[in-house]
Amino acid sequence: MKKYNLPVILLKGIVLLPQNTLKLEFDSKNTDNNVIDMSLLFHDNYILVVSEYDSRNLPKIGVLSKIENNLVLPNGNNRVDIKGLRRVKITEFLNLNKLKEPLESIVSEIEVEKVDKEEFIINKLVKEIKSYVKNIPYISNSMFPLIEKEKSLDKFTDIVVPTLINSKEKMLEYLNTINPAVRGEMLLKDIYQEKEMFQIERKIDMKIRKEMDDSQKEYLLKEKIKLLKEELGESSNKDSDVEKLKIKIKKLDCPKKIKERLNFELSRYETGSSMSPEINVIRDYIEWLLDLPWNVFTKDNGDLKNVKDSLDESHYGLEEVKQRIIEYLAVKKLSKSNNSPIICLVGPPGVGKTSLAFSIAKAMHRNFVKMSVGGIKDESEILGHRKTYVGASPGRIISSLKKAKSSNPLFLIDEIDKMSNEYYNDPVSSLLSVLDPEQNKYFSDNYIEEDFDLSHVLFILTANYIENIPEALKDRLEIINISGYTEFEKFDIATKHLLPKIIKENGLNDNFINISDDVILKIIRNYTKEAGVRELERQLDKLVRKIVTQIVTNDIKINKININDKVLEKYLGKEKYKFNTKTKSQVGVVNGLAYTIYGGDTLPIEVNYFKGKGNLILTGSLGEVMKESASIALSYLKSNYNLYNISYDKLINNDIHIHVPEGAIKKDGPSAGIALTLAIFSALTKTEIPNTLALTGEITLRGNVLAIGGLKEKTIGALRSGIKTVIIPNDNDQDLDELPDEVKNNINFIKVKNFKEVYKVIKNV
Ligand code: ADP
């Protein structure tokens, strides 16, 4: 085996493999520079490069290399490019201990072993390397042109290893492994391992980056919120919030269970991340629990005489209503039981239901709260939404109690006749559970989740129409009817209650405005049309305000102002309603009586007939029951045409058209039965019916007249419209006692059992 002598370069921390080039710069004073000189001068630029890893144990393998470029730099240093050629075996080092002499060696060539399936292995390696390099951005792919055509595995591995392998120890292993096949195998293994490592690294990387992103995001948002809060002058500090809540919870007088719940929620709030969406839900919930009047009770005024006096002071008349309320309170006070039925005030708008309830609360020294259930379709409006819903909140009962600020307020539930109960989630049964003394001690709102005791609440309900109150609810109620007011009553309410109140509210002296009785009556008759006094109050308020404005803006100095008929129009504008403007008495026109939201009113019924086949045409927004009444009326007259001298020919060869004017207003109910019958009779027999007569009563096919409801309202309306005679069903006899004197004294009532008696009345007028 050929041996030769070569100068040696010892590398520390660098490994040169064959096929690679090393760029080195030598200090001119360094002995290594002599090595270069030796190589250049005596060895044909050949040199041995030894990568040392343990100076006591010099390696047995070195790389025969050739100096390719030698550049002497201005500072005298040498810059050389040394290209590794092949592995050689080092048999001996010369001058090893002679520090001043250049290191030399004796080396012998190594014969490279033949590799089985060399091409296959190279191809495999190329494939793996390519897929590996593709995923790793920091590995250069500049080696590809070199390896693509390389047929020797020996050279191939030496070309790629420095690019792919980072560790110096590993490089040395490659250097010291002479067999190319073994090196190929090593390389494959290392690529696999690197690939795996890379995947793991990437995973970790991504995780870390995500964590960093999240925490960075959280940090940035927190900072932003902090700045915003500072900008708004709010404290940004959750800790101080927690401290404040702690004090509030400690001070709160509430059941033990509630306190426990509050403390539990507070600890959740304290430990939760400020960025979690739940934290605000918890905060809101704590706020709600803190705001409810758990153990707050006002002391009742037990002096019922005093309560009665207050009601008298605030509300004119309504004697029976007030008396029943006082009785109810007395029974409740005595029995201490919660089982008494609940008061329900029923009557048209503006008759004082709400204000009366408010006065009761005031007189009893209870807080007052009002909740309307009109139009409620879903029980969650009463019982609240579970916290899991976005934007959940408690239902109206709990919200109202928060407003009430005590556990025993007077709680007015308005418009119970306008509640919908046609849905599966019917709110009526929820309301029942609220009112039921057996259940309401443990009332549970879906949002609050904890029981709230409603048994000390005094509930009062209101409705406009008794028929529309859900049956299940009606059973539990003590109905107190408040009917509309007569003109006389309205006049008294206006002069004794409304005007003094309004004058006081406008900061005037009692006697400053003198409004004549005629003016007040005119306002009642021509500026309002209602059962109650709400519109009347509004008109009086408008009048007083206009007077005050005029005085203030014109700086008028007077002690008293008189309002008479003539100046009224100046303040309130033109009359809105014409009083007593009935049309002339006419054939085929009859006054029925109706009970509308405006209170009682006359209901003119018009009938025409023309050639046809005996059909009935009905117009004017009539409801089903009223349409049936019209059919019954016509059938009755058809079968009794003889009795009433009606031409049978006319009955069967004509169509009959019944119209009830003011088509936009819906009308229904059976009480127009006798008025419809009389109107058809009047048209067919050309009998004129006096316009001062009105009728109310249901008719049957046999002509019997049945009782109707709302007589008081209807007759008050009739009086207002200038009606002098009212025909009523005999069965409504007992209702006559309840009619206001004004009505009794001015209207002539005629009671009838059947239509024959109506006919008799008509014959005699
Ligand atoms: P409702 O609840 O029946 O619709 P409100 O209680 O709102 O009616 O009454 C409307 C206005 O009429 C209130 O200002 C009330 O004080 C007044 N009012 C109604 N009835 C009377 C009465 N009998 N005496 C004094 N004021 C009354």
Named at the architecture level, the CATH assignment of the largest domain is 3-Layer(aba) Sandwich
Mean pLDDT: 86
Q: Level of helix content?
A: 40-55%
Shape: elongated
Total count of strands: 26
Q: Describe the main β-sheet briefly.
A: 7 strands, mixed
Oligomer: single chain
Unreliable sequence segments: none
Assigned CATH class of the largest domain: Alpha Beta
Short description:
With 765 residues, this protein is α/β, with parallel strands linked by helices.
Write up this protein:
The structure is a single chain. The chain has 765 residues and is α/β, with parallel strands linked by helices. It folds into five domains: 107 residues, Roll (Archaeosine Trna-guanine Transglycosylase, Chain: A, domain 4), CATH 2.30.130; 55 residues, no CATH class; 178 residues, P-loop containing nucleotide triphosphate hydrolases (Rossmann fold), CATH 3.40.50.300; 86 residues, Helicase, Ruva Protein, domain 3 (Orthogonal Bundle); 176 residues, 2-Layer Sandwich (Ribosomal Protein S5, domain 2), CATH 3.30.230.10. 44% of the residues lie in helices and 19% in strands. It is built from 26 helices and 26 strands. The strands form seven sheets. It has a seven-stranded mixed beta sheet with strand order 19-20-18-17-22-25-26. It has a five-stranded mixed β-barrel with strand order 1-3-4-5-6. Strand 10 and strand 11 form a beta hairpin. The N and C termini lie far apart (157 Å). Bound molecules: adenosine-5'-diphosphate. The site of adenosine-5'-diphosphate has 17 residues, from helix 12, helix 17 and helix 19.
